[in-house]
Amino acid sequence: MKTFNLSSVVLVATAYSAVSAFVAPSARLSSTSSTHIASSTESLQGPTETTDDVVTIAELQCDAGGSILDEAAMLAAQKYPISPEELISKAKYALVKDAGVLEPSLWAEDFEFCAPYVGPLSKTKFLEAANGFQIYDSFPDFDNRYFNFNADPIEPGRVWFMTRLRATNDGAGLFGKKEPSNKSVISPPQMYSFLINEQGLIRELTVGYPVDRRQGNTGGLGGMFGVFYGIGQALPFPEGKPYQLSRRFILFNKIGDLVQRWTKKKEE
Questions:
Q1: The whole model's pTM is what?
Q2: Does domain 6-29+82-267 have CATH number 3.40.30.10?
Q3: Which of the four, 178, 209, 220, 246, has the lowest number of CB atoms within 10 Å?
Q4: pLDDT tens per residue across span 8-36
């Protein structure tokens, strides 16, 4: 029987919602990109305007706010050795293997896992955390419900996908409790990703980033922090609880409202 270890929970908390949880990028594309509007008859070979390694090809230019990318053209321009279709296939296979926890050979030697409050964790640290917390014993019906897989047209090798997790704590109890809560949790839609290197191995795994905090019953929290909150067993620190506005931010908004009213009254 495993004893409860809070440090293990903290490590796993956000890491284990992608069936485990995935990476935080250590090296990001830092260049700015120029925009090139592509016509339907234009060759995809050699767009005329580039900055460093990033080429922006726009399908449409918005009246305000920038451009709508021509994803197919940009993916073709990357000339990555692994096709977008194969990248997505590799991502799905990794998820079948619990993001690689059941098959660590899918991970590169410099693999990293990252969640909003956890990580980056190395390959060894992440595997230790994942194996040290038996989440599926507590949530037998744990289902991330993955969908919307897409290859990134800007960052070569990155595959983005979403989850809508639902699970019920009707298995083992949590945090030393003998009985389960029998409560169900529904997480908000979350964004996850894999970064797959040119050798076809997973370099990064990122998980637990909510895209609409109003949905679900986790108070807007993603990852396992949200799961614990959703069943009424929130972790004992601010990151494990729903976001709350700071007093300073509330005061700032009130001052802004007063200034706006004063300006409007003055104009009248």
A1: 0.78
A2: no
A3: 178
A4: 334 444 444 433 433 333 333 433 444 55
